[in-house]
Write a sequence for this structure.
């Protein structure tokens, strides 16, 4: 019985990639904090989850990283120059995303340690 | 993984904010630079920022990052200050001296905003570094 790493790591590898992609989007938002007319974006996890649960009932949940939905953020206080980046909101999202990245990494680390233990006996 | 691009995005923002700080420093330094005509007098300078989307063919367009570019540095069109100072060596025939249209209070707030934005991007780079390092340590111990 061969060990398939894709199966062994589960969806955590995909989750890690998704977190890295989200980091890029949030970094763009933070970078364009003072660009007039720039509209902040983010990945819509709720929509992706709803689509995943709707399509695969018996196959279990799969994380769909092919085309995550990016949506424009609705600002709490619209600004006159059309920029929708709100520093506090973006910083909170960035910080949360970095923690989620660490979480995924920890899960993969635990999976790998389990595999190593199985191999070494 | 797109760590290099993220670093580029944060770097472009830091460059843009440095340009902004540069114009603020120039405006504040020249706030009281007199001249003898409205054409010669220093005018407040402002950078114009624009988002530059990365159109990488291999990437999903929806996930493309956006860098910041400084399109131009424009001079303010607000009227310059005129002052009647016959004793000033730069005064014209009517005894009028022209001063720049620099608003010191606005420049100070702009400076604070620019330095905060710069620090935000430094923080992004720091976080990115720690993410990358923990990724490299994966599977150790």
């Amino acid at each position: 019985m061969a060990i398939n790493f894709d199966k062994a790591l589960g969806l955590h590898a995909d989750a890690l990639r998704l977190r890295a992609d989200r980091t890029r989007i949030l970094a763009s938002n933070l970078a364009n904090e003072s660009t007039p007319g720039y509209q902040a974006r983010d990945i819509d996890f709720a929509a992706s989850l709803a689509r995943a649960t709707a399509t695969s009932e018996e196959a279990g949940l799969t994380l769909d990283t092919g085309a995550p939905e990016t949506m424009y953020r609705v600002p709490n206080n619209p600004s006159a120059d059309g920029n929708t980046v709100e520093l506090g909101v973006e910083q909170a999202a960035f910080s949360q995303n970095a923690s989620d990245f660490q979480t995924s990494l920890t899960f993969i680390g635990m999976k790998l340690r389990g595999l190593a233990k199985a191999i070494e006996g | 993984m797109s760590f290099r691009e993220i670093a580029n995005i944060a770097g472009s923002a830091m460059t843009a904010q440095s340009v902004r700080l540069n114009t603020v420093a120039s405006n504040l330094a020249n706030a009281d630079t007199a001249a003898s005509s409205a054409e010669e007098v220093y005018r407040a300078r402002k950078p114009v920022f624009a988002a530059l989307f990365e159109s990488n063919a291999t990437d999903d367009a929806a996930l493309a990052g956006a860098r910041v570019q400084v399109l131009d540095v424009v001079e303010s069109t607000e009227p310059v200050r005129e002052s009647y100072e016959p004793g000033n060596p730069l005064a014209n025939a009517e005894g009028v001296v022209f001063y720049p249209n620099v608003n010191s209070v606005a420049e100070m707030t702009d400076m604070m905003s620019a330095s905060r934005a710069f620090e935000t991007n430094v923080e992004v780079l720091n976080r990115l570094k720690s993410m990358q390092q923990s990724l490299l340590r994966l599977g150790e111990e």
